[in-house]
Amino acid sequence: MDEQFEYSEKVMEHFRNPRNVGEIKDADGIGRVGNPVCGDLMEIQIKVENNILKDVKFKTFGCGSAIATSSMITEMAIGKTLEEALKITRGDVADELGGLPPIKMHCSNLAADALHAAIQDYMAKKEEKAKVEAEKYDYDVIIVGGGPGGLSTSILCGYRGLKTAIFEASNWGGVLSWLCPTKMIENFPGLCEKTTCQDLIDIWLNDAKRLKVDLRKERVNEITRDRKVITDSGEYRGGIIVLATGTTPSQAGVKGEEKFSKNDKGVYYFVTNPQKFAGKRVLIVGGGNSAVDAALSLAETADIITIAHRHDELRAVPHKMEHLKTLDKVKILYNTELLEIAGAEQVEKAVMRNVKEDEEFQMAVDAVILAVGLTPNTEIFKKLGIELTENGYIKTDKSQKTSIDGIYAVGDVASEVQFTVVAIAHGLIVAHNAYTQLRKPYWR
Ligand SMILES: Cc1cc2nc3c(=O)[nH]c(=O)nc-3n(C[C@H](O)[C@H](O)[C@H](O)COP(=O)(O)OP(=O)(O)OC[C@H]3O[C@@H](n4cnc5c(N)ncnc54)[C@H](O)[C@@H]3O)c2cc1C
Predict the structure, then answer these.
(1) Cα–Cα distance between 256 and 127 in angstroms, integer?
(2) Ligand 1 atom at minimum distance from 188 CA
(3) Helix, strand, coil in percent for the chain, rounding step 5
(4) 171 lines ligand 1 (CB under 6 A)
(5) Which residues are CB-contacts of 13 (< 8 A; sequence separation ≥ 6)?
(6) How confident is the model at residue 1 (pLDDT cuts 50, 70, 90)?
(7) What CA–CA distance (Å, rounded) separates 143 from 426?
(8) Residues recognised as catalytic
(9) What is the mean pLDDT of the chain?
(10) Which among 172, 175, 220 is the best mutation to test ligand 1's pocket, defined by most ligand atoms within 8 Å of the CB?
């Protein structure tokens, strides 16, 4: 026979016993191609699971070569990822068949084209399905809490084209804006000592607006399992909900605390305005960075500063401790706990106890700062039944997913390592997951 028309053994074998002929019930993608010159028609159907071709079948009307190339490409494609399958070329098909007569090479082209068309059909349908799904929601992503965690999540979702809303009950920027707007940001590589907390928040807010994030100044009262967010003014449904409610300064739970902690009567949880303490005798309770920060920020204004700590060592970072040692007006009472805050209208004295000696004593003070830690804001999730850690933080996996489907958590409410960059990193992980979950790109 003329070499130009000679088929290899493998071609003949596939022609006589074609593999994977037929149709797939509920095929995920269908590719149809034809060659008008020779009249060959080829259809390939695919079933995809987790981005892998689980099944590939064909129906071909054509010559022996068209049957053999179709049969071969199904064998080559099954078990491959979509990306790998898209890389199969006509040459690969011909090579696997031990070569094709030059005049029949177009058949291998047809097989590769039909497979690629089926994959493209699958991707288009998947995108369409994701769009239809998305239309069922008011927003792709709803974020509860407008601190660093929530704001950065909103920016990163907006950047990915996700329709995003963020709800904030009080101050945009969370604790940084509420407690220390003029402080230079720390622990933020590249920006330390270069920007204040409020400047950073303003940059985030501008970015969120530019990316068309819907910034809503509303307190969220409840979240339901079917991803509804309920506020005083309405109900909003999200494809994904992100909890970013942060923390609130913990109460010390001592006698007199409640009486003096409202309306500027002398009990505070942070120093927001050092001028308020000008000429005063201030007692700071606590032993971590917050307590030492409070002392340092009052160095220029307060008259006497006393830090009382239950243990025999402070836990602040070394450079702050060094700075503290240079301040003569700061006195540290180790092994000392606060028992009571007392006074008529304003704070006048503190009742203390040395825990080692078991001795009580009193101190005349004008203000008490209770820097005793932070409590995660999880109150509104009680009804939702979300799983918490033993310390009361929202439990998440490494994708920031909570125990409830479609609900994620970021920032301080979900982490005992409480820094801005941690909250931002959480936001990026969530934005990436939200995009892949909602848009279902072909590579997922
Ligand atoms: C005094 C102080 C100084 C700090 N300095 C630094 C620093 O220099 N560098 C650094 O990296 N980290 C610093 N931190 C830590 C940093 O502030 C936190 O890690 C960061 O704020 C966490 O962001 P977040 O969004 O998780 O929480 P938060 O900042 O607490 O924000 C949570 C937001 O959620 C809102 N919210 C709560 N409940 C609801 C509700 N039901 N509906 C709507 N909104 C709600 C709150 O109003 C709040 O605005 C500091 C912390 C403090 C307290």
Answers:
(1) 60
(2) 11
(3) 35, 25, 40
(4) yes
(5) none
(6) very low
(7) 13
(8) 38, 107
(9) 93
(10) 175
Q: Does residue 90 sit in helix, strand or coil?
A: helix
Q: In the beta sheet, which residues pair with residue 235?
A: 230
Alpha-carbon gap, residue 256 to 306, rounded angstroms: 19
- pLDDT over 80 (residue 67): yes
60 lines ligand 1 (CB under 6 A): no
pLDDT reading at 37 higher than 90: no
Residue in this structure with the two tokens 């700071």, named with its chain if needed:
284
Q: Which of the four CATH numbers 1.25.40.10, 2.40.50.180, 3.90.1010.10, 2.30.42.10 does domain 3-132 have?
A: 3.90.1010.10
Query: Does residue 352 have a pLDDT over 70?
Result: yes
Domain pair 3-132 / 257-372, same fold = no
User: What is the residue extent of each domain of the chain?
Assistant: 3-132, 138-249+375-439, 257-372
Q: How far apart are CA 230 and CA 223, in angstroms?
A: 6
Residues contacting residue 328 through CB under 8 Å, at least 6 positions apart: none
Q: Higher-confidence residue: 52 or 134?
A: 52
The answer, yes or no, to whether any atom of ligand 1 lies below 6 A from the CB of 418, is: yes
CATH of segment(s) 138-249+375-439: 3.50.50.60
What are the angstrom distances between the C-alpha of 135 and each of 131, 132, 426? Answer: 6, 5, 26
- CATH superfamily for domain 257-372: FAD/NAD(P)-binding domain (3.50.50.60)
In this prediction, residue 103 has a pLDDT band, given cuts at 50, 70 and 90, of: confident
Per residue in 239-255, pLDDT (tens digit) is 999 999 999 999 999 99
